[in-house]
Amino acid sequence: MATLLHLDASAAVEGSRSRALTAALARAFREAAPGNTVVHRDLHAEPLPHLPHPGLHWAAPVRTGAAPDAASAALQDRLTAELLGADALVVGFPLYNYSLPSSLKAWIDHVHVPGLTAPSAVSGTPLAGRAAVVVATRGGDYGPGAPNEGRDLATPVLELVLGEEMGMAVTSVAVNLTLAGSDRPEQARRSEREYAEALAALRALGGRLGRCREKH
Ligand SMILES: Cc1cc2nc3c(=O)[nH]c(=O)nc-3n(C[C@H](O)[C@H](O)[C@H](O)COP(=O)(O)O)c2cc1C
What we know:
Layout: E1 3-8, H1 17-32, E2 37-42, H2 70-84, E3 88-94, H3 102-111, E4 131-137, H4 155-165, E5 169-175, H5 185-211
Parallel strand pairs: 1-2, 1-3, 3-4, 4-5
């Protein structure tokens, strides 16, 4: 019995590739073992506020400045409990202006909390080794040798915060050239191929994560 936290951030409610990819992983996870649970949070449909108070960046025991108001702290408690209570995480997002959708950035700002989800002088790494799957869809080409190589500034943020800061075991998956249409048939075929490969890989990964019963 395992729990997956499933996040989507695309502003496209229909026809979104990142949503389809995360849904495939989530379905395989749910079906992998009886009792598996998926908690879905749609960061676009139910947007979080921008971080309203700097004190939210620190857990209470290591906070030096003023405390946040009770309502903001309660929202953060819900979000961090959701993350800490999950055995695995999948995050789907499109690249927007070379960066993260702001809805996803708001989630990161709420859940990256030294002293709670990330190590501090007085706490360990509660999420160490837990699986995080980061799924990016990108209109352009960010592959090796492409002019945009290295310009996806979103995936590295997630790898840094979830992986290096929180200690999660991050797997990154990306699909390029999603905006290529019939006027660019070769690029469109490559995008379809990358999408099909990502779909298969995420289904398989969802199944493996869903069969991993050991609760962290
Ligand atoms: C506001 C906005 C900004 C975008 N900026 C970029 C960008 O900087 N680089 C890029 O490759 N694609 C960009 N795109 C295209 C999306 O990343 C691409 O269409 C993606 O596949 C959408 O994912 P989805 O199908 O899950 O919604 C942008 C799209 C929108 C709507």
